[in-house]
Structure formats: structure tokens, C-alpha cells
């Protein structure tokens, strides 16, 4: 259950993508090659590669990172429940969660060691074995993905556990306590994740608690995590200032209200219904949508074009185009400054399913992640370089030339020693 199985899965995934590129193939070329091969009458190996590429495309290797007590394990526990991995929701304080399984973790109610777990989101159905290509304008979250997740500890004493996990992640969910905002350890792990160039989304949790301040937390994300917050959801407080009951989704332009219970029953409201139910929230949602489109247009050319196609109507831009734009911004180097923000209260079972959708829709698959850097004997390169053997050859050449230089140096030294001896021996 610890990080090793995930590491293996990740390495296998990486190895598969590496072997493709070693052959000089990208998934598109493989598809074409598969077609050609089938025409020749034997399609097994290329079909297998295509299948592998599609499986990889539907894999997410992610971590949950944050300050201590932000709700990482509580959120993970809900993810496992909604995915069908577990049949009941465990509680950190009762010591009954899946990922806090060490006796010391259960006794103290804190995470000490990173724990990895695999589940499927959305839950797998009978037809999910056939990897049918994604229809245009359908979000990735419409088909089942394999999520390999690491729940990391938030306590500063166990930072090395976070570091250990960051090396193998393709993406991360950073959880913030909606009352405490951006805390010291969150800043620390956030910047560590930046070093490994890991795309991240933010989930503002605990919005059910007294003193929760979503707006202030978003401003702190901008000032302390150094990025542009892309607010994708806003909290829904009953009647404007009552209890926290759901979220308003700026991407899909809808309100989601959770019924009491295990969080599986969610009522959806389109913009019109929301305007009659909660007029103030509907107004806020429109403002959030405008801000989101404006922000994306500043960082993504394709979104500008889409915006003009929609006759400059912020509300008319299709949800899937917004998701794809967010994804591009998140995955491109310069776009790492965009921080998509989601909202919820995991303990009250509110907001976790849309967060899972965001994981599959926005975070990268293994082939989309930059290669990890490897260093051997002072020679640096990508993992692909290492697996192809090029890095070892380079390192061998470097070592040989260093040896050659040393040899020359020692020969010169011997020569000069000999010359001095000759001089001394002269009458
Ligand atoms: N009110 C409220 N409490 C929450 C929420 N989410 C988590 N908690 C509580 O916050 C405490 C810490 O939750 P955890 O899930 O253990 O937090 P964590 O981030 O995993 O903590 P570490 O792993 O020790 O860093 C527990 O008492 C949870 O019940 C929430 O949405 N609302
Ligand atoms: Mg924990």
C-alpha cells in the first residue's frame, strides 16, 4: 500500500511511453502504423501499442499535498468511497481510514507515511474495457480513468516523505483549509512541487467551518503561491450566509447542492434555475465565469479565438473548451502560473466528485509529463536517455576523456621529473 506499487506502476507507464519514443513514434504515428499493419493482415503488436497508449492516456498519477490537518486523508477517503473502492467512509479521528493504516497514524489521527492507492474514476462499468476514442466536446471525465494516488503527510517532520513522492508524480491536488488559508507547510510543499514542475490544482476544503473565507483564501493563493487563481467553483452558502450546502460551477455554469447523507445524492441547477433559487449566487457565478474566460484569454490564444467565435459572450463558451484551455495552460511551461481553484467540505461529503472530475480533466497523463532528470557520474539527461543507453555512453566517454587527461598530466609530470633529475646529475 505504500509508494512502491505506485512507483512501479508509474515506471511501467513511463517505460511504455519511453519504448514508443525510442522507436521514434508518437501515439498518433502508432495509430497510423496500426492501420497499415492491419491492412497487411497481422495487427497484434501495433494494436497492442495503440491499446497501451490509450490506457496510458487514461492514467493519472497524482499526489495530495498540503499543510497538516488540511483534510488530505479525509478527502482521499471520500474519493475511495465514491469510486467504489470502499463500501463505507472511514474517519481520521476514529482511526478507520484506508491510507492512515499504521498503528501510530491511527492512534494520533495524523499521517506519518505517504500511502499509495489505486482506484478508478468515474467508477468502471461493464463496457469500460473497450477504450473507445473520446468524442469531441466530451470531457475526459466521461470515461473511466485509473487514478494512482499518494496521500502525503502534512507535518513538517515528515517532509522527506512528501519529497520522496513528488519525484514520481505527474500532477497534484493541493488542499487548503478554508479557515486557515495558505499555511507555511503548504507554501513549502507547493514550491517543492514547482521544482519538479508538477501541474497542480487547488481545493479549498473545510468551507463548512465557522470563519471559512473563500475569497480571502483565493487572494492568498495569488499572493503566497505566486500564480493567477482561476476560480472554477464558488461556494454555495444557503440563502447567501447560511450553512455551506454546495458549489456553483463556473465551467459548466451550474449549481450543485448536496443532500444530507453520504454525498452521493446531488441536485443540479442550471443557470436559470439557480437564478430563481439563489439570485445572488447566480450573479456571482456569472461574474466568476467572465473572470475565468478573461484570465484564460490572457494566457491561451485558442481561448481568444473561441471567445470571438462565441461573439464575445463569456457565457456562451462551451464547457469543454474551457477545460481544454485550462489544461493547456496548466501543462505548458509558461502556463504554470495559472492555478485552477475548486471548493468543498470533504468531511461533510460536499465537493469531492467534481474534484475527481477535475483530476481526470485537467491533470496530465504519464506521456504528457516532462521526463524526470537523471544524473550519472556528473552527466545529466532525461530518463529516456538513460533507458536508451545514451546517457551511459556519454558518461563512459566523459570518464575516458578525464582519464586520458589524467594520463597526459602524469606523463608531463614524469617528463619534468626526469628533466630535473638530469639537470641535478649534470656536473
Ligand atoms: N469541519 C471539517 N473538518 C474537516 C474537513 N476535512 C477534514 N476535517 C477534519 O480535519 C482533521 C484533519 O483531517 P485529515 O484528513 O487527517 O487531515 P490531513 O491533511 O490528512 O492531516 P495530516 O495527514 O496529518 O497532515 C480531522 O479531524 C478531520 O475530520 C472538512 O471539510 N470540514
Ligand atoms: Mg493525512
Task: Give your account of this protein's structure.
Residues 121-148, 398-427 are annotated as: Disordered. The protein has a seven-stranded mixed β-sheet with strand order 2-3-1-4-5-11-6, with helices on both faces. A four-stranded antiparallel β-sheet has the order 7-8-9-10. Strands 12-13 form a two-stranded antiparallel ribbon. Strand 9 and strand 10 (266-270) form a beta hairpin. It folds into two domains: 54-124 and 138-368, Rossmann fold (3-Layer(aba) Sandwich); 373-425, no CATH class. Helix content is 46%, strand content 17%. The protein has 427 residues and is α/β, with parallel strands linked by helices. Helix 9 (271-277) crosses helix 10 (279-299). The structure holds guanosine-5'-triphosphate (GTP) and magnesium ion (MG). Guanosine-5'-triphosphate is lined by residues 66, 68-74, 92-93, 110-111, 153-155, 205-206, 208-209, 345-348.
Amino acid at each position: 500500500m505504500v509508494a512502491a506499487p505506485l512507483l512501479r506502476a508509474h515506471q511501467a507507464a513511463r517505460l511504455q511511453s519511453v519504448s514508443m519514443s525510442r522507436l521514434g513514434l508518437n501515439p498518433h504515428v502508432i495509430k497510423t502504423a496500426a492501420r497499415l499493419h492491419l491492412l497487411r493482415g497481422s495487427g497484434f503488436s501495433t494494436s497492442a501499442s495503440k491499446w497501451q497508449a490509450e490506457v496510458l492516456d487514461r492514467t493519472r498519477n497524482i499526489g495530495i499535498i498540503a499543510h497538516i490537518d488540511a483534510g488530505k486523508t479525509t478527502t482521499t477517503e471520500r474519493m475511495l468511497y465514491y469510486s467504489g473502492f470502499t463500501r463505507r467512509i472511514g474517519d481520521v479521528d476514529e482511526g478507520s481510514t484506508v491510507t492512515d493504516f499504521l498503528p501510530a497514524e491511527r492512534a494520533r489521527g495524523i499521517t506519518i507515511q505517504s500511502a499509495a492507492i489505486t482506484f478508478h474514476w468515474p467508477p468502471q462499468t461493464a463496457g469500460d474495457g473497450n477504450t473507445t476514442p473520446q468524442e469531441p466536446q466530451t470531457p475526459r471525465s466521461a470515461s473511466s480513468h485509473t487514478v494512482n494516488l499518494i496521500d502525503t503527510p502534512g507535518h513538517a517532520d515528515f517532509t522527506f516523505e512528501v519529497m520522496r513522492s513528488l519525484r514520481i508524480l505527474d500532477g497534484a491536488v493541493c488542499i487548503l483549509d478554508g479557515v486557515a488559508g495558505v499555511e507555511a507547510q503548504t507554501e513549502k510543499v507547493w514550491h517543492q512541487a514547482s521544482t519538479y514542475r508538477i501541474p497542480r490544482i487547488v481545493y479549498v476544503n473545510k468551507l463548512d467551518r465557522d470563519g471559512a473565507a473563500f475569497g480571502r483564501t483565493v487572494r492568498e493563493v495569488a499572493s503566497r503561491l505566486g500564480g493567477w487563481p482561476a476560480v472554477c467553483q464558488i461556494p454555495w452558502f444557503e440563502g447567501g450566509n447560511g450553512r455551506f450546502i454546495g458549489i456553483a460551477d463556473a465551467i459548466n455554469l451550474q449549481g450543485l447542492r448536496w443532500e444530507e447523507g453520504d454525498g452521493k445524492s446531488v441536485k443540479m441547477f442550471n443557470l436559470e434555475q439557480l437564478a430563481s433559487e439563489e439570485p445572488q449566487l447566480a450573479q456571482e457565478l456569472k461574474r466568476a465565469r467572465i473572470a475565468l474566460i478573461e484570465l484564460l484569454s490572457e494566457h491561451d490564444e485558442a481561448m481568444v479565438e473561441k471567445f470571438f467565435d462565441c461573439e464575445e459572450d463569456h457565457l456562451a463558451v462551451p464547457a469543454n473548451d474551457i477545460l481544454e484551455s485550462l489544461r493547456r495552460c496548466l501543462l505548458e511551461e509558461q502556463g504554470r502560473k495559472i492555478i485552477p481553484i475548486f471548493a468543498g467540505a470533504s468531511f461533510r461529503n460536499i465537493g469531492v466528485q467534481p474534484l475527481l472530475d477535475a483530476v481526470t480533466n485537467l491533470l496530465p497523463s504519464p506521456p504528457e509529463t516532462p521526463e524526470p532528470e537523471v544524473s550519472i557520474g556528473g552527466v545529466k539527461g532525461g530518463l529516456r536517455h538513460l533507458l536508451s543507453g545514451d546517457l551511459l555512453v556519454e558518461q563512459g566517454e566523459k570518464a575516458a576523456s578525464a582519464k586520458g587527461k589524467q594520463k597526459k598530466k602524469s606523463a608531463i609530470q614524469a617528463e619534468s621529473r626526469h628533466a630535473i633529475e638530469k639537470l641535478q646529475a649534470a656536473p
